[in-house]
Structures are given as structure tokens and as C-alpha cells.
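Appendix B. One record, verbatim.
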Amino acid sequence: MNTPKVGKWSLVILLVMTLSIIGTVSAMEIVIPKIFEDVTVLHHFAEYIGWLKANGIASGYSDGTYRPDQPITRGEMAKMLKNTASTVVAAGVSVKRNASDHPYIDAWFNNVNGVAPTIGGSNGLYDINLGFAVDGKFLMCTVNTYHGDTRDAVCSVNQFTGNRVYVRIFDISKGGLAPGEFWLLVYGNDIQP
């Protein structure tokens, strides 16, 4: 059987090539993307921390770190809750009624485009134009139950077309629609400017 002979120079060339490959590989730096200086995309909570950062809820510390394993202070939680409210709650309307039971907007905010809402309707059926499309958004209403005549009332909210929302106040003890005062909130961070 003929075995190929490996010369001394062939071994030297093989050794030099192997060392150069090993040297090149060891000199390579693997770069792992970072969300914060101390949070890489491999962190077990990276998806959530990244979402908080992308939505302006958490900005981390001035040194560029997030410190994910450090306890959170009450002050930091307060800031995150405030940032959450301005990011997630798109708009709100407080509806009251005058002596003639006509509705009027007592207070409002609109984090989408700043347009003031308008209201129409009466006797438990209200039509609110928010000034922006609310299709597919989460709508919630809450009756102000501190009024004796709406203590047993509940409200429901329906979005029909574009900017218009209908709120119904139903008084359980009276068995039908009744005038009421309420808050309407619209949730959705994807409609922020």
C-alpha cells in the first residue's frame, strides 16, 4: 500500500495555516445587539424591556443602563405609570348634565390630535364625536355613581362609524335608559401621533 509522504515543509505550511485560522477566529468579536448597556437581546425579559423602551414608558438611567435585576422605587414606578397613561390612553371625556338633563363635556383630553370632542343626545343615549377614528380601539365608560339618581346605572359604549361613539346609560332600578354622568376612555397606543 502506497502511503503519501508528507514533507517537512507541508507540515510547516499546514501548521501556519491552522494558526492563522485560529488567530482570525479568536480575533473575531461577536456583537450581540443591546436594548440598554446592560440588557442584550438575549436577556430573558428582552422582549418586554424593548417594548417599554420603544413605547416611551421606560428610558433607563442616565448612564445608559436599565438595571433589570434591581428593585424599582416608588418614584420610578410613578414615572412609568405616568408614561404608560400618556402612551396607552388615547383620549378621555367626562360628561356631566345640566339642570335640564342636557349633556355637556366637563373635562376632556386627546393625546391623538388635540381636537375637542362634541356631544349630542339625551335621556341616557349619547352621541360623542372624538375627532379621530376609533375603529378597532378599546372603549370603556364608567358611570359617576355619586349621584343618587344614577346609583344603580351602568353604561355601555359602542363605536359605529369613524369618529362617533354611542354611550347608553341604563338604570337597573328604573328598568330603562336614564340620564347620567360618565367618563369615556379610549385606549390604544398605535394611534398616537
